[in-house]
Amino acid sequence: MQTRITEQPSAYRHLETKSVQEITRYINTEDKKIALAIELVLPQINALIEIIVTKIKNGGRLFYVGAGSSGRLSVLDVIELPTTYGADPELFQVILAGGVDRLAEAREEMEDDKNEAWEQLLKKGISQKDLVVGISASGTTPFVLAALSKCRNEGIDTGCIVSNPGSLIAAQALYPVEVITGPEFITGSTRMKCGTAHKMIFDMISTTTMIRLGRIIDNQMVNVKLINEKITDRAVKMLMGLSNINDYDTAKELLFQHGSVQNALTSSNGKY
């Protein structure tokens, strides 16, 4: 039987009797363990990122299939990518139990649906060029497990991010990441350490992938969308710093002409 560490009792008892100071100290103590747990699985994360980059470079896409808190966190990561990196929104997508369009409703009952995820992948035109990554704290969520099993049967590469060892979902993943953060502060409340660990891994995956795809120069967001004054001002100053343009208005005009810092630098052909 699978070890369900995420369901084991909290190390902290009688929380209703504790002060605010005690509770926050205990939570902080548990949170300190998260980065160390991720460090232990960096090789698995690296392998997953390598295949994501390869798939996208070859015309494929990444699909997260998730449910619960971690599934919703994957949505939050993915929706940032077009703005931050000017990335095509088709490259990173999420199939969420209950639907991305109903994110705020937290429809946990949909986690048990064994058909919906695959049906949604079919609507997206899933193929062997793509990669499907299952997201599940428990490693047993039927919505996710059924999708990965079907993908394996169809010859579609799979990965996963789970928080229990030896899970059913990890067994269906060619690129499994099993980040073991231990029992939760509130017994079974995987929105806490598990959710934080998964969010940190999503950050690693998306950021590293975008860097490897050439969406970053030095450490700058050179493809950021010019959606407001703050970001536009940042982009103008970025362009000035990466070129020999010293005049703010000239840099701003060039930026708007080409739509991004990277395009402005490329189109200037060394002029600046």
Automatic annotation (TrEMBL):
<feature type="domain" description="SIS">
    <location>
        <begin position="52"/>
        <end position="215"/>
    </location>
</feature>
<dbReference type="InterPro" id="IPR005488">
    <property type="entry name" value="Etherase_MurQ"/>
</dbReference>
<dbReference type="InterPro" id="IPR001347">
    <property type="entry name" value="SIS_dom"/>
</dbReference>
<dbReference type="GO" id="GO:0097367">
    <property type="term" value="F:carbohydrate derivative binding"/>
</dbReference>
<dbReference type="Pfam" id="PF22645">
    <property type="entry name" value="GKRP_SIS_N"/>
</dbReference>
<keyword id="KW-0119">Carbohydrate metabolism</keyword>
<keyword id="KW-0456">Lyase</keyword>
<protein>
    <submittedName>
        <fullName>N-acetylmuramic acid-6-phosphate etherase</fullName>
    </submittedName>
</protein>
<dbReference type="InterPro" id="IPR046348">
    <property type="entry name" value="SIS_dom_sf"/>
</dbReference>
<dbReference type="InterPro" id="IPR040190">
    <property type="entry name" value="MURQ/GCKR"/>
</dbReference>
<dbReference type="GO" id="GO:0046348">
    <property type="term" value="P:amino sugar catabolic process"/>
</dbReference>
<dbReference type="GO" id="GO:0009254">
    <property type="term" value="P:peptidoglycan turnover"/>
</dbReference>
<dbReference type="GO" id="GO:0016835">
    <property type="term" value="F:carbon-oxygen lyase activity"/>
</dbReference>
<dbReference type="GO" id="GO:0016803">
    <property type="term" value="F:ether hydrolase activity"/>
</dbReference>
